């Protein structure tokens, strides 16, 4: 790949416009952008935050070159290039009754208040479908978009967080949060990069996609 990158450094693409949800700003994009700029110092990455409802129309309109997002059933007029998969997990503070490692019962799950870390429109319905398949009717989850705020709330011992472990990796590694074993099939999400169907990604954009795919393997 190094020889290919050396050949591409002389290309004249001066800007790459990328849309991405807020969670990837925290954990994935900084490393990808830094490495991309090492290879292409004359190509400016312009990164726009938003969820798929905002980013995909901008991609279709030509305002973006690439857009990160979750896989949709029928993203009309767009190609989806898979980057990584994750599974949502239940997270609690060390003082929470569920932190003992035991799998909670359906009755306990139904009576709990859930705090959902989700800034993508697709995640909420996935969580609702998970509970429906278990025949559990929980309270409506409270959406907490900021991981710091979610962690602070969970450390009080009240409520159960629903988030991807890679978003909470620092808190989990430090023991400030505990991942809970839960029943049923996992809430799996498929992340990727959307491009439009009216043009192929440029060689420079393809390098960005490959860098993102490699960095995603390190999320853990």
Give the CA-based shape. elongated
CATH architecture of the largest domain, by name, is 3-Layer(aba) Sandwich
CATH fourth-tier homologous superfamily of the largest domain? Periplasmic binding protein-like II
Number of strands: 9
Low-confidence stretches: none
**Main sheet characteristics:** 9 strands, mixed
Which percent bin holds the helix content?
25-40%
Output the helix-strand order. HEHHEHEEHEHEHEHEEH
How far apart the termini lie comes to 24 Å
How big is the Rg?
19 Å
Strand content: 15-25%
CATH topology of the largest domain: D-Maltodextrin-Binding Protein, domain 2
Family: Belongs to the LysR transcriptional regulatory family.
Pfam families: LysR_substrate
InterPro entries: LysR_subst-bd
Protein name: Substrate-binding domain-containing protein
Give the helices and strands, then pairings.
Blueprint: H1 2-8, E1 15-20, H2 22-27, H3 29-39, E2 44-49, H4 52-60, E3 66-70, E4 78-92, H5 106-110, E5 114-116, H6 123-134, E6 142-143, H7 147-154, E7 160-163, H8 169-173, E8 178-180, E9 187-196, H9 203-216
Parallel strand pairs: 1-2, 1-3, 5-6, 5-7
Antiparallel strand pairs: 3-9, 4-7, 4-8, 4-9
